[in-house]
Design a protein that fits this description.
Low-confidence stretches of chain A: 188-196
Helix content of chain B: 40-55%
Oligomer: heterodimer
Distance between the termini of chain A: 16 Å
Helix content of chain A: over 70%
Shape of chain B: rod-shaped
Largest sheet of chain A: none
Strand content of chain A: under 5%
Structural class of chain A: mainly alpha
Strand order of the largest sheet of chain B: 2-1-3
Distance between the termini of chain B: 51 Å
Number of helices of chain B: 14
Number of helices of chain A: 10
Order of helices and strands of chain B: HHHHHHEEEHHHHHHHH
Number of domains of chain A: 1
Radius of gyration of chain A: 18 Å
Strand content of chain B: 5-15%
Order of helices and strands of chain A: HHHHHHHHHH
Number of strands of chain A: 0
Largest sheet of chain B: 3 strands, antiparallel
Number of strands of chain B: 3
């Protein structure tokens, strides 16, 4: 679901430039959860380290940041994405979408006090990207977890908006085939199309 | 014709299609998406206060003078810290003594302290402390413990205690022989200087420059200063032995804070969106919302 802009967060960005504690807390509570979910899905064990680096980078550069909370969100995920790419290059690692087995590894690593909630989230995200090629997984995560629009994802990933739409289309089609119910009727499809 | 067009997928991902409007084949995907967007968990909000301190430090409003290193060290990867400790405990210390530390790392140290390497035996019978000065290899034998210490800058970065004694011992080795020497106790480490040029290089290193400066500050020559320096390790050899494991952790924490100060500058990634602007006049809504600063929490 696309991210909805918030006046509170816009103000928090302004106040965070002064180091206002409440403002930073507000930003952190709003943006760190999706950041951690994105990084967990992309890097697993290094997620916390990268997230820390992203926040340090934001703290360092926020004084010159221009924009609202949507821009802030895009900026944060752009930074996070580049750091994951750097990490993969350094490690010469395979992409993060190599199977549901990996979910268990990073889910085990996630030392959450509220285990049930965290596991449910991790499992859902792992299932979302399970079996997808890396580019499709990344775009889907940026759309679903980060809540960015196709246009924003296109800017972050240096693709055309059309390319993003095609890629996400392939990803969703793959998922729908994988998870499709056996009881799809022509009527349901028709009703769905009319609603648009 | 494709029943699920790009437009439908776009609307679906934007959240413009909900409930019964979602086709059957996307129902499960919709459920997964919903779960992926559940409210924050406690684990995801850990580190909140570190983020606050990072912002305050970056903004120059740190709560206490030591805030920056503390914050950054907390945020630093433990892997990076471990690597830093490994370097400091093995080659880094010797490199400091010989002046071979890369410029960027070397420049980072004086702000927090002076790095010296001491090697001291823990034998209760005969104890000798020797500084390793061979720039090509470090050889240790016997029940020795090597540690890299970061001495706080309370004395303008000058060495003291064990470090001073170690430097003096090394100084004596360099100035008296210039050749391979055996320590009095064969179980201690062996210091070797293979040539006159390496002797000169060692004496011009940062560690010995500071030793010279310390002596000058006290109106003494280095030899005089060293003559007044006793071996503090002798009295506490047994205690040092018992505390050795804990010291590694202490050094790790200290070096963590040193290394963390270099992380931002070595990062290959930087924020892309921010644009250089005149300070204080960036966001249009800033003045409008100025009165509502306390409206969130």
């Amino acid at each position: 679901m696309e991210y909805q802009s918030s006046p509170e967060l816009r103000q928090a960005i302004i106040d965070a430039k002064r180091g206002d504690e409440r403002a930073v807390t507000t930003l952190y509570r709003a943006f760190n959860p999706p950041l951690m979910r994105f990084l967990n899905a992309r890097t697993r064990l290094e997620a916390e380290d990268i997230a820390s680096g992203v926040w340090l980078s934001i703290a360092k550069n926020i004084a010159t940041f221009e924009g609202d909370d949507r821009d802030f969100r895009a900026w944060m995920f752009s930074t996070a994405r580049r750091r994951t790419i750097d990490l993969h290059r350094r490690q010469k690692a395979r992409p993060a979408t190599d199977g549901i087995q990996d979910f268990y590894r990073f889910a085990d690593h996630y030392k959450a006090p509220d285990t049930d909630d965290q596991l449910e989230i991790n499992q859902a995200i792992a299932e979302l990207i399970d079996g997808l090629p890396d580019d499709q997984a990344e775009i889907l995560l940026l759309r679903v977890v980060a809540g960015l629009s196709s246009k924003e994802v296109a800017q972050i990933t240096a693709r055309s908006e059309t390319s993003v739409r095609v890629t996400q289309h392939r990803a969703i089609k793959f998922l729908s085939k994988k998870n499709s119910s056996k009881n799809v009727t022509p009527e349901s499809r028709s009703a769905f199309s009319k609603e648009l | 014709m494709d029943p699920i067009s790009q437009e439908i997928i776009e609307a679906f991902l934007d959240g413009k299609i909900t409930g019964h409007g979602i086709p059957q084949e996307l129902q499960h995907v919709a459920q997964l998406m919903q779960k992926a967007q559940l409210p924050a968990t406690k684990a995801e909000l850990e580190g909140e206060h570190f983020a606050v301190q990072a912002f305050q430090t970056a903004n120059g409003s740190a709560l206490h003078p030591g805030g920056k290193s503390k914050v950054l060290s907390k945020l630093l990867s433990t892997k990076a810290a471990t690597a830093a400790v490994a370097v400091a405990l093995t080659g880094g210390g010797a490199a400091a003594a010989t002046g071979l530390i890369p410029v960027s790392f070397h420049h980072g140290i004086p702000t927090l302290g002076t790095q010296v390497t001491t090697t001291s035996t823990t034998s209760s019978a005969s104890t000798t402390s020797t500084t390793v000065l061979d720039s090509t290899s470090t050889t240790q034998a016997g029940p020795t413990s090597t540690s890299s210490t970061l001495i706080p800058n309370e004395n303008q970065g000058m060495a003291s205690g064990h470090s001073l004694f170690g430097l003096c011992t090394a100084y004596a080795h360099i100035t008296t022989s210039g050749t391979t020497q055996d320590a009095t106790n064969t179980s201690t480490s062996v210091t070797s200087l293979s040539s006159t040029s390496s002797t000169v290089a060692a004496l011009s290193s940062t560690a010995f420059s500071q030793l010279q400066a310390l002596a000058t500050a006290q109106n003494m020559t280095v030899a005089q200063l060293c003559a007044t320096t006793s071996n503090p390790g002798q009295a506490h050899a047994q205690t040092a032995k018992q505390n050795a494991p804990g010291f590694v952790n202490k050094a790790k924490q200290t070096i963590q804070s040193v290394t963390s100060t270099t992380i931002p500058s070595t990062s290959t990634t930087s924020a892309p969106v921010p644009q250089t602007t005149p300070s204080g006049n960036t966001i249009p809504s800033q003045s409008q919302a100025a009165g509502a600063t306390n409206g969130h929490g």
